Amino acid sequence: MTELFEPTGEHDWRIAGTATGLLAAFNAAGVLTSSDVHVATRLGALGGEDDERVLLAVALTVRAVRRGSVCLDLGTVRAVAPDLDWPEEWPIERSPLVAAGAVRWERGLLYLDRYHRLETQVHDDLADRLALAPPPVDEARLAAALAKVRGGHFSAEQEAAVVAAAHRRTTILTGGPGTGKTTTVARLLAVLADQAGGGLSIALAAPTGKAATRLQEAVVTELDAVATAWPEARGLVGRVDGLTLHRLLGWRPDNATRFRHDRANRLKYDVVVVDESSMVELTMMGRLLEALRPESRLVLVGDPRQLTSVGAGAVLSDLVAGYAGRADSPVAALTENFRSEQDIKALAEALRDGDADDVLAVLRTPSEQVSFVEVEDEAAIEAALRPDSVAAARAVWEAAVAEDPAAALDELDRYRLLCAHREGPFGVRRWNHLVERWLAEEVGVEAHQVVGDQWYVGRPLLVTSNHYALDVYNGETGVVVRRDGRARAFVAGSERLKEFAPGRLDAVETMHAMTIHKSQGSQADRVTVLLPEEGSRLLTRELFYTAVTRARTHVRVVGSEAAVRAAVATRAQRATGLPQRLAGS
Ligand SMILES: Nc1ncnc2c1ncn2[C@@H]1O[C@H](COP(=O)(O)OP(=O)(O)OP(=O)(O)O)[C@@H](O)[C@H]1O
After folding, report:
1. Which atom of ligand 1 approaches the CA of 303 most closely?
2. Which residues are 554's β-sheet partners?
């Protein structure tokens, strides 16, 4: 796995011209970028530290945060570039930077102060919630409610999770796709509303708009199912608000990292459910925990095996690891997958267990649900991907030309091409261009109509940031559709299709292909996973697992055996101190 960059010369922008000694050497070797070096030298100048070993450790910590870690593990850092001339020791403890609180040194981990504060806050807020007296439960009422929600489907595991959650203020509900997390949440809400006699205020939140919408829809559908055996349940639960975490906390135009709701202005909700919690970064988790009233209920839902958040931290998997073995653990795990086809499940399980031979065996066993296209050269990959990609793009295009936005949006969820990278031969950008070209050839329109016009009819869209004024959110999908002879953009919302003059949507990308990171929180019937080369820095087990578990009925993996083995062998490791903190308290 390549961790370093290769400087292209002394004028490479990643080279800090003013660096000397160790910092210069690690910069020239491609370990540190110029910004890592500058932050460390600036901190050193402000804090009166000139020991180059300490400055190197600080620069490496900046680098670690840039790559998603919360801190730097000095015990293992040499593995980044074993051949370099590493200091014999790290005189951190007596550094004036530690004395001044600019950096924190704890359990062999070095933190920038901001991340140390965040991590301890998350830990302390969770510990405070766990230390509160548990919520009162009317056990007879609970038993009666459980008997009513048992109608339809409800496994023993799901029931146990509901019972545990009813007795706690904090619950971490984990499980892979299709393990009935939403089903469980809906029944939990009915049980909690029944305990309260109605009148609970409930927020259903998620990191992206798409995931929040999906959660709200799924919970409402499940509540309707519950209502067949328990007609009062729907009324007891009442309204459920589906919203992004940003919106829940009160986005502020003047501040990107602070919200309207905080410790001094807590959220009014009695119950807050957060779906897709694996995508929640440490900063956001800190903001959420401080904004919750201590006596409110928090239900974090997610799959800890998925890719971690884009920003620093790996909070969900840290919580699962940190609480493991603790008698007061708030983790309730669902393990039975009710949705995916047998062979997709087998592939996901082999990946979860980390056995590359098993993964390859599943991939190579003839199956209706799993296929493996073992190709490496670009022409062969293109030939393998073209038929399905074009058929999917064509189906969207046909609905779009027929002025049928709902059908076009439905088609989007039938097939998805997933790439690890944005750029390069295995990247989304290249594959978007290729599919556009192939589509133009296929449907016989002038190539420039598809390739040259940004808003061509049939263009699948992925919204890439929240746009509150337009009611359009990061992760939502859309299509450009013909309407009365003009191109209009339609975005799928929770209750309706949202229609726009295309130019109003500025933060959108074409979605013939999608990155695996962006695909979190969504599924498609058939998924093609294009694995990058084995040397790719992004190729990890978590990435592969996330991609495979996006598929409902068929997953096709395109790549080499070496890439599969590299993915299975590589964990998306992030240094954080949260598990140890939780385990130790
Ligand atoms: N106990 C059960 N028996 C049979 N089917 C079930 C059971 N629980 C849930 N299901 C069904 O399995 C499917 C997946 O359930 P659900 O959507 O609740 O899972 P999920 O874990 O929330 O999935 P995702 O990760 O995609 O959000 C649904 O069709 C649901 O109706």
Report:
1. 25
2. 526
Q: Which domain holds residue 93?
A: 21-111
Residue located nearest, by CA, to atom 26 of ligand 1: 177
Q: Is 404 helix (H, G, I), strand (E, B) or coil?
A: coil
If 0-12 CB within 10 Å is exposed, 13-18 middle and 19+ buried, where does residue 353 land?
A: exposed
Model confidence at 2: pLDDT above 50: no
Ligand 1 lining (C-beta closer than 6 Å): 153-155, 158, 175, 177-183, 218, 338-339
Cα of 149 vs centre of ligand 1, distance in Å, is 15
Among protein residues, the one whose CA lies closest to atom 9 of ligand 1: 180
Q: At which of 290, 309, 339 does a domain end?
A: 339
Q: Considering only CA atoms, which residue is closest to atom 15 of ligand 1?
A: 180
Task: Based on the fold, state whether residues 316 and 249 are members of the same structural domain.
Answer: yes
Q: Both tokens of residue 199?
A: 């009148």
Q: Which residues are annotated as a binding site?
A: 175-182
Please, are residues 43 and 58 in contact by the beta-carbon 8 Å criterion?
yes
Ligand 1 atom closest to 184 (CA): 18
What's the CA-to-centroid distance between 186 and ligand 1, angstroms?
11
| 121 found inside a domain | no
Ligand 1 closest atom vs CA 155: 1
Give residue 337 CA to ligand 1 midpoint distance, Å: 7
- How many distinct structural domains can be found in the chain? 3
Which ipTM value was assigned to this complex? 0.97
Nearest 5°: the CA angle 244, 246, 251 is 135
24 exposed, middle or buried (CB, 10 Å; 0-12, 13-18, 19+)?
middle
- Considering the domain boundaries, does residue 582 fall inside one? no
For ligand 1, mutation pick of 210, 222, 223, 338 (most atoms within 8 Å of CB): 338
On whether residue 476 sits in a domain, the answer given is no
Which tens digit of pLDDT belongs to each residue from 159-196? 999 999 999 999 999 998 889 999 999 999 999 999 99
The answer for residues whose C-beta is within 8 angstroms of residue 103's C-beta and 6 or more apart is: 43, 58, 61, 92, 95, 97, 110, 111, 112, 113
pLDDT in tens, 351-396: 999 999 999 999 999 899 999 999 888 899 999 999 999 999 999 9
Contact 387, 368 (CB under 8 A): no
Quick one: 301 and 163 in the same domain?
A: yes
Residue nearest to atom 27 of ligand 1 (CA): 177
Q: How far is the CA of 191 from the centre of ligand 1 (A)?
A: 18
Q: How far apart are CA 562 and CA 221, in angstroms?
A: 43
Residue that has been written with the tokens 């806050």 in this structure: 121
Residues placed in the known binding site for ATP: 175-182
